[in-house]
Design brief:
2 domains, flat, alpha+beta, 4 strands, Nitroreductase, membrane, transmembrane, transmembrane helix, NADH Oxidase
Amino acid sequence: MPAEDEYQGRYLAHQRRKAAVLAQILAERHSGRRFADRPVGDGDLEPLLDAAARAPSSCARRGVAARVVRGRDATALLGGLLVGGVGWIHRAPAVVLLVADPVAYKAGDEVRFMPYLDAGVMAQDLMLAAAAAGMASCFVNPAVREPNRDFFTARFCAGGLFCGAVAVGWPWEES
């Protein structure tokens, strides 16, 4: 095996540093359902939404979009509609809804599962970006109470297929 030149050595050291940073982010990543009373601005969300938009998707369709919901009234409404958000989601400064365009999933009955897989990858990338930014996040499953489904879809999804959500905010710090 040939000896490593100085350029290759720097490159390999850089790769090891990147791997260490990713390993640290993965180790620190956890679900946070308590958030500080600190707003999440557009600039705070931008790298998270960029990470979600760049996430791999089935057949490179990019059939799932991220829609940001903010404001106490809107997040409280989500808390009443989403089974997984009961009792806590209203405290999130921002909730990113993952909404699929069913037209993007045409082969057979793949609309039953592929949008959820794509949304899961998006959610994971978004949550890793949140951890890298020092933010807390938590995935919210796509279950909506049966009597509220039509209202939820009309209010938040506009013809799309709701595939889950990620609540995002600055971490709660106990005094």
